Amino acid sequence: MKTQVNLYSPNLHPRLRLLTLAVVSIIWLIFLLLGLGLYAYVEYQNSQQQGMLTNIQQQNARQSEVVASLETDLANFKADPILVNQVNQKQQQVLGKERVLKELAGQSHTEKSGFALLMYELASQHHKDIGLQHVMVDQRNIVIKGVAERASSVPVWMNQLTNTQFFAGKTFNQTNITKTEKQLTFTLSSMTNAAATGGAGL
């Protein structure tokens, strides 16, 4: 048997209302603040861009003034005939010196291809056991005389000469090594000698 009766049924309970005036007011306030913040940011960016544009326009104006001034100076410029004549003379002198240098370079190359090249390569292929006493060269013949501490040093030194430009492909028709009480002498010659028994190729 029931002793209590609940007359407060669920349909009589108060319902939660989300869209109340206070909630709507807060939402509108939030959107308003966001809108104001976005507007302030856009205005700040716009002011920065405007400042940069102003600076660029000012620089452009100054550069335009400089260009106009230079164009005016160029229009009023007249070449000094004395200076022009001096420049032409200097250019002719430089061209003349260049021709002289080319001729000297050609002569130097020609000289080096002969006796100068021979002496240069003999010096570059120096052997500690070899001492040269006489060198003679013309268009067809080469004669080299010297002393050596050991006979075996001569062919070694001759082999070194094969690496040089002057002696490449040349042949000595006469090779003579003589030993005395005091020293050992040698003679290399490319002259034709009927009595030569053999030759050394370089």
Structural description of this entry:
There is one protein chain. By secondary structure, this protein is α+β, with helices and mostly antiparallel strands. Helix content is 53%, strand content 15%. The protein has four helices and six strands, in the order H-H-H-E-E-H-E-E-E-E. The protein has a four-stranded antiparallel beta sheet. Strands 3-6 form a two-stranded antiparallel ribbon. A hairpin with a 4-residue loop joins strand 4 and strand 5 (184-189). Mean pLDDT is 78; it is low at 192-202.
Shape: elongated
From the helix content, strand content and strand pairing, which structural class follows? Answer: alpha+beta
Q: What's the pLDDT, averaged over the residues?
A: 78
The helix count comes to 4
Give a brief outline of the structure.
The chain is α+β, with helices and mostly antiparallel strands.
Fill in the keyword field for this structure.
single chain; 202 residues; alpha+beta; 4-stranded antiparallel beta sheet; two-stranded antiparallel ribbon; 6 strands; 53% helix; 15% strand; elongated
Helices, strands, pairings?
Blueprint: H1 21-76, H2 81-112, H3 115-124, E1 130-137, E2 142-148, H4 153-161, E3 171-172, E4 174-179, E5 184-189, E6 200-201
